[in-house]
Write a structure and sequence with these properties.
Elements (H helix, E strand, L loop, with lengths): L2 H28 L1 H18 L1 H14 L6 H24 L5 H5 L2 E5 L1 H10 L3 E5 L5 H9 L5 E5 L5 H14 L2 E4 L4 H12 L3 E5 L9 E6 L2 E6 L1 H9 L2 E9 L5 E5 L14 H17 L11 E2 L6 E2 L2
Parallel strand pairs: 1-9, 2-5, 2-8, 3-4, 3-5
Antiparallel strand pairs: 6-7, 6-11, 7-10, 8-9
Helix pairs in contact: 1-2, 1-4, 2-4, 3-4, 9-10
Length: 311
């Protein structure tokens, strides 16, 4: 890639970020019907002018749709994922003044509540692991309806208006924010919170800068997932509980609770079976609803030897 091309791509990204920060959120709050009206155009523009999105989403589609999928099918899939991104931002933006009961009113069904009871009965707190799918905020509101001490682990977003609104939402529903960029000290804080029977909520489908990860088989390729949840479970004795909040008919959702995962503290350097159980639960949901997986980066790679990245 030439320096000129990199400069052009950088300008386009800055322009897109500027639109999201100062256009989508501003007009979405004040003229919501306008954003809904022009959303197909926004999806088209994003697909046509963002080489980053086209390349990465098509690469993911090659695994999620299978090797026999055509270029046309992968392009169509990519546009559906971009549409989901805009749907999420649109819903998130218009819900900013809602209270917890408003969020709960969007839930069509909750399946697997027996798994929640089993994980809670295990004791030592609870680690809820989810993925970048559906409406995270509605899922968190549902957890807060049953728990009083909930810690959300997040990585700060470089889009300041979005991060500000996201932080405002967490405070409004009563969740404790935990910045993942704090490093090792954060995990000691979370371990102590779990010792007090708290719930820790963390994303499990993406390794963020500074985190350790492991490549695991995933939808015909390999996905690097964070080791943090498994290591935290080993250190605290808490069970891991996969929970996914999936769109039924946006903005309405259904919540799926997976089987609890018990991590052995004796396994070194980590409980690989537990890690694969966790990745398997995420893989199952992603394979069933691939266009709800909001992975705009090139998440999946060709199968390689198992390898870790240390802190």
């Amino acid at each position: 890639m030439t320096e000129s091309t990199e400069s052009t791509n950088g300008f386009r990204k800055r322009l897109a970020d500027l639109f999201v920060q100062h256009g989508l959120f501003f007009f979405g709050r004040r003229i919501p019907f306008l954003i809904k009206l022009i959303k197909p155009f926004l999806v088209w523009v994003s697909f046509i002018f963002s080489r980053y999105l086209r390349r990465n989403l098509a690469a993911n589609a090659a695994y999620l749709l299978g090797p026999e999928s055509t270029a046309s099918e992968r392009a169509s899939f990519s546009r559906r994922v971009i549409t989901r991104h805009f749907q999420f931002l649109q819903d998130f933006n218009r819900m900013q003044d809602w209270d917890r009961q408003d969020y709960l009113g969007l839930i069509d069904s909750v399946s697997g509540t027996e798994h929640y009871d089993q994980a809670r009965a295990h004791g030592q707190g609870l680690i809820v692991v989810t993925a970048h799918m559906g409406s995270y905020e509605v899922g968190l509101a549902e957890i807060m309806d049953h728990e009083s001490d909930v810690h959300v682990v997040y990585m700060p977003n470089d889009q300041e208006p979005f991060e500000r609104l996201r932080s405002k939402f967490r405070r409004r529903v009563g969740a404790v924010e935990n910045d993942a960029s704090q490093g090792l000290g954060l995990w000691f804080q979370l371990r102590d919170a779990l010792a007090g029977n708290a719930v820790v909520v963390i994303q499990g489908d993406r390794v963020m800068p500074g985190q350790s990860g492991q490549h695991v088989p995933f939808c015909g390729g390999q996905l690097e997932i964070p080791l943090g949840p498994v290591k935290l479970a080993a250190a605290s004795g808490a069970a891991i509980l996969p929970i996914f909040c999936l769109y039924s008919e946006p903005p309405r959702v259904r919540i799926e609770i997976g089987a609890p995962i018990i991590v052995s503290p004796e396994k070194r350097p980590f409980d690989e079976a537990a890690l694969h159980a966790l990745s398997g639960s995420i893989e199952r949901v992603v394979s069933q609803h691939p266009d709800q997986w909001l992975a705009a980066h090139s998440a999946l790679i060709q199968p390689v030897d198992q390898r870790s990245r240390s802190l």
